Structure formats: C-alpha cells, structure tokens
Amino acid sequence: MVKKNVLKPWRRLMWCIGHMNHQYRQRMYQLCDLYRRPYDPAEPVVCVDEKSVQILSASRRDLAMQAGRPVKQDYEYVRKGTRNLFVAVEPKGGYREVAATARRTKADFVGFIHGLLHSVYAGVRKLHLVVDNLNTQTPKVFVEILGVEAAAELLARVELHYTPKHASWLNMAELEIGILQRQCLGRRLSDPDELDREVLAWQQNSNQQRRCLNWTFSRQEADRKLSRHYVT
User: Fold this and answer.
1) Three-state secondary structure along 62-92?
2) Over the stretch 113-127, which tens digit does the pLDDT of each residue have?
3) Which of 1, 115, 124, 213 yields a CA-CA distance of 20 to 30 A from 130?
4) CATH number of the domain that 157 lies in?
5) Most confidently modeled of 40-44, 63-67, 69-73, 223-227?
6) What was the pLDDT predicted at 54?
7) Within a domain: 31
C-alpha cells in the first residue's frame, strides 16, 4: 500500500519569501511542472537536502521509566559534536536515502550523489535532481572532485534543477527532513553510532511503507497566491 503525505508548503511562505523576480518565478514554475509530471521510473525526480545534527549525551543518569511515569532526563547535556545528514527523497516512488557524514564538503556531496547513481538508481536513464543553491552543488564541483571524464559520465545521467534563491520550501527534501526530525531526531542522540542506527531504522520503515509525497502546488496557484510579491 502506498501512503501519501499531502504537502502544502505555501503555508510557510511568511518566513521565506525571497525576491520574486523573473528568475525566481521561472525556477518556481519549472519545479512545479516537474513535480506534476507523471511518474517515470526511468527518469525519477529525486530531491536532495542536508541537515546538521548535534550529538548530545546526558550529563546525569536518566531516571528510569516506571508504571505510569515516562523516563525523565535532566535538562543539562554534554555536546559531543555534530554530524551532517544528506537526505534524498523520491516523492512519487516512495523511496528515501539518508547518509550521515562527519562533514558537509564538496566531496561529501559528490560522493552521496555518486552513490545514488551507482546503487539505488544504477539502471535509470536520467535522474532529475532537485537541489538548493549551495556552491557545493554545481557541475563544476563534480569536475573538481571526480575529474573531467568521470564527471561527464556521471552528469550525462543527471539533470540538475535548482530552487530559487531563498526558496528552499520548493525542495521536497526539506519537507522530508521535517518529517525525519519529528519522527526520529527530536530527542538526544548520544553518539554517531546511535544516530546511524536510528536513521537507518527510520529509512527502512518509511521505504517499506512506500510513503510518497503528494505535491499539490501548481504554477497557477503560485500566481494566485504570490503575484502581489512579483517584481520585474
């Protein structure tokens, strides 16, 4: 059974309206049209984003759970660094992939995409990849990390689609990260191994359910709701 989460990202626009010039609108329209295409397993749409996670351990031992009483934690904690999570979600295929890395460098990003193309999406004709405007996510970066020939081979199977500046709400991976935060990360994780175990369990459970994301925001609705913000 395929489960769908209906997404209404425009409800958050009061926090993230950028400069809605011609480039902004064209990228917004292009993504809305991309999300509304019929599902094609040979050319899947995959959204990618990242999130920093703090590793926190307790400074005092928890009070164990008892009948009628939940476990109790002291408000103090010991910060033990951070980990970066790369999150890829295929909205209409109901698949997501999460990878934890020690850092968020160009090489880490390229390695994550390389892994997707050579494992989960090894057989696809083209991967439509939705990303934000970070300087780690350009074709030039793939050349820098992989070299000209290897980058050209990889990018021949990738079409990059960029969100407008200050419009990460158009990247469904950001919304998937919100779900991950609520269902998995909204508590203390005391070491990287625990983070890896919890994220893997969440990923496997979500993929078993084939939980798809249903994008309903169209370019027509964008014009109706946002046209007062448009600038030339």
Assistant:
1) CECCECCECCECCCCEEEEEEEEEEEEEECC
2) 999 999 999 999 999
3) 1
4) 3.30.420.10
5) 40-44
6) 86
7) yes
Angstrom distance (rounded) from CA 79 to CA 58: 9
| Kind and range of the H or E run holding 51 | strand 45-58
**Beta carbons within 8 Å of 230's beta carbon, 6+ residues apart:** 20, 21, 25
Tokens encoding 138: 């350009």
CA separation for the pair 53, 32 (Å, rounded): 30
Tally the domains of the chain: 1
230 in a structural domain: no
**Where in the sequence is the domain holding 177, given as residue range(s)?**
3-58+78-222
In a domain, 218, yes or no: yes
Tell me, what's the pLDDT at 56?
Answer: 67
Residue 41 DSSP label: T
Task: Give the 3-state secondary structure of residue 11.
Answer: helix
154-201 residue pLDDT tens: 999 999 999 998 888 999 999 999 999 999 887 777 788 889 999 999
Closest C-alpha to 97, from 212, 199, 3: 199
Give, to the nearest 10 degrees, the angle between helix 22-35 and helix 219-226. 140
Q: CB–CB of 187/150 below 8 Å?
A: no
For the beta carbon of residue 176, count every other beta carbon within 10 angstroms. Answer: 24
Which helix (H) or strand (E) segment holds residue 174: the answer is helix 172-180
- The tally of CA atoms less than 13 A away on the side-chain side of residue 171 is 27
Strand-strand pairing, 95-101 and 77-90? antiparallel
Helix (H, G, I), strand (E, B), or coil: what is residue 127?
Answer: strand
